[in-house]
Protein 1
Amino acid sequence: MFTIILITILVVVIGFLWYDIGSDYVYMTERSHGMKLIKQRINDSWQALADEHNLIFLGGGFFKKVTLHGSYRQYYLNLELKKRTEHKQKLFSTYLTISSTQANSQKNTHQPSSQTKPVVIKDIVRFFNKPSLKFSLKAPLQIAENQQIITYNYNGVNSEKRYLQFLFDLMVDLLNLYPEIIEQEGDIVAGLLTMLNDDTHGLQLIAANLLENIANRTAPRLKDKTTPLICPMCLAHCIPHKIIKTVSKATVKVAIKDVSMLKVTHYGCRLCYQSKNFVEGQLVVVLDHTMQAERLEENNQLRINWFKHKNPFDFDVVEIKQASDEDVERFVVQIKNDTDPGRKEHYKTTTYIIALDCQLNHNTHRILERTFINN
Ligand SMILES: [Zn+2]
């Protein structure tokens, strides 16, 4: 009886194992032809890249590690084909890292590639503009280790030589330009915000990292300024811009709530985000027909001649010196029609001063009182 039970158990176990191995075998056989083709393509393109750039290619078939590594444009490049099994399926991912730290230790063993080219700041522009990239990125790029390593991890096989070449150069250019890009500070924030809010942009994580670095540079310098800062180009104040980007829990499957990608405060011009060029003091709009200049900087004030400038801006004080009732009325109508939401709020705390020798009628006084605060 015991023997019968034992034999039954053995038959069940062997049957189960046979089924398991068999299904895997069938799967592998079905795909073996396709795999051979992929393997051939990797061999051809990765080997060609190795030959072209003096890199080392190790192609050991699908059950051994497939790598391409070495010094590329004075950085250390490591491209790997990684294999994993999910639901009995063999899945592959292409993992590429380019780092400046390891390049130093490799310098003696690998010659720098002849592809080295000088990088200029205008190259930055092409990183912001997705259509100008030669290829669309199949996976996002990520930067780590104090901007020393840039990584790319694609769930699939990248065997196209031209695409890989483009990736290598894009990643090296980014590492090369990184300090210069951060140095641009507020000037590039608008472009980075566009990238950050585009969930299909392969450089979204790079944009998040750059914005964090830029914000961290502006905060210590501009956060605790006691006098107002004015952007002389936009005639707008320097304000804290809260930049928040979350990734929905639907995208990050393991998360139980939305995950924060970025939460920083950038200090810069309210309108153009620039963070380097400011005038300290009050911004005054002057209604004075005797004023010749369009703008004057004096006594911690940036004074703007309304009759020459003629457009609303973020003024803190209205100063009426030589102006008629009609001038003031036209000015107030233009201010009331201003659609900028930031300025609409700002006008509620704006004060006005009327020169003693400026004769305005009762109605004009009432219009001013209803619009600004009498100082
Ligand atoms: Zn500005």
Protein 2
Amino acid sequence: MAITLAAEEREQMLSAARAAFKNAHAPYSNFRVGSAVLTEHGTLYSGCNVENASFGLTVCAERNAIFAAVAAEGSGMRIRAIAVATERDGPCAPCGACRQVIFEFGPGALVLFRGRSGTVRRWRSSVFAPWSFGWHQRTVPNNGHPLARRNAGE
Ligand SMILES: [Zn+2]
């Protein structure tokens, strides 16, 4: 069944993402990004990008929000929707690494993103990350992990 969001939920998510980018640590790129994740439990978690002088250690807003959700709800956390906002014009779509992480916890999640203003873009994570690597490709036993069971359609 396709995930849908009420207009109020969508605005709440985008507002949380906008609030989050104000806390970004982006002294190197000056590109502040915020994200908000809505889990299946109905809880909203936010994150911002955190850069580092050693550029490779930078973590995007989307992954920080998702990891906060996992820290709070456990590894069975499931993403219903994720929003991404920036202070610049034009929408900011999640990068490839974030798309893979979004897919891990929400293969059918709704992905919303936009810039400072303008149209809200909406996609499904399965469209964003087609043929993503996932639990179904693992060759080691999954030990009955809830994500493996759900992704297998159980
Ligand atoms: Zn990213």
